[in-house]
């Protein structure tokens, strides 16, 4: 699975609090399953809930929500484009620790398609890219590269 590590990198880059405190960001893959069909190949899809926990966070929840939304736009776009998935595509819980800090837990239903081929007597696999919406304009939500 690639998406947990990719989201960790995106969140860490976007949230200054995490630069000196990377141990305050925790990721958990939960309720994972592999969905495959009886097609001719062994290609499959990972389906899981990614739980992202930021601990002792003293900034606004917006500081986490916005970069997660930007990452989702590129990496799980059907959470925006499919009306049936919008309502449950981004869930969160907050544990208010005191007047200044919270632990924020975000739960995201993610999928990753894996294409499997047999080449020269061994398995080769690659992760399929997410479909690109030709009408999406990332200029309003994508951070410029550093």
Walk me through what this model shows.
- This protein has helices at residues 3-14, 62-75, 78-81, 83-86; strands at residues 25-36, 44-57, 91-96, 102-119, 122-127.
- It is of the alpha+beta class.
- Strands 1, 2, 3, 4 and 5 form a 5-stranded antiparallel sheet that branches.
- The mean pLDDT is 90.
- It has one domain.
- A hairpin with a 5-residue loop joins strand 3 and strand 4.
- The chain has 4 helices and 5 strands.
Summary of the model, kept short:
A hairpin with a 2-residue loop joins strand 4 (102-119) and strand 5 (122-127). With 146 residues, the protein is an alpha+beta fold. Strands 1, 2, 3, 4 and 5 form a five-stranded antiparallel sheet that branches.
Lay out the secondary structure.
Blueprint lengths: L2 H12 L10 E12 L7 E14 L4 H14 L2 H4 L1 H4 L4 E6 L5 E18 L2 E6 L19
Antiparallel strand pairs: 1-2, 2-4, 3-4, 4-5
Helix pairs in contact: 1-2
Task: Jot down its keywords.
146 residues; alpha+beta
Shape by Cα distribution: globular
- How many β strands by DSSP? 5
Strand/helix succession: HEEHHHEEE
Helix content: 10-25%
Q: Whole-number radius of gyration?
A: 17 Å
């Amino acid at each position: 699975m690639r998406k947990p590590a990719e989201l960790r990198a995106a969140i860490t880059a976007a949230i200054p609090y995490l630069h000196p405190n990377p141990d305050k960001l925790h990721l958990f893959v939960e309720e994972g399953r592999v969905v495959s069909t009886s097609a001719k190949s062994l290609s499959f899809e990972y389906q899981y809930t990614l739980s992202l926990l930021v601990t002792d966070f003293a900034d606004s929840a917006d500081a986490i929500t916005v970069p997660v939304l930007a990452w989702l736009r590129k990496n799980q776009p059907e959470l925006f484009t499919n009306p049936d998935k919008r309502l449950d595509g981004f869930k969160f819980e907050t544990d208010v620790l005191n007047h200044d800090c919270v632990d924020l837990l975000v739960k995201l239903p993610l999928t990753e398609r894996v294409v499997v081929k047999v080449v020269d007597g061994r398995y080769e696999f690659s992760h399929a890219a997410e479909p690109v919406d030709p009408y999406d304009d990332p200029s309003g939500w994508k951070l410029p590269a550093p």
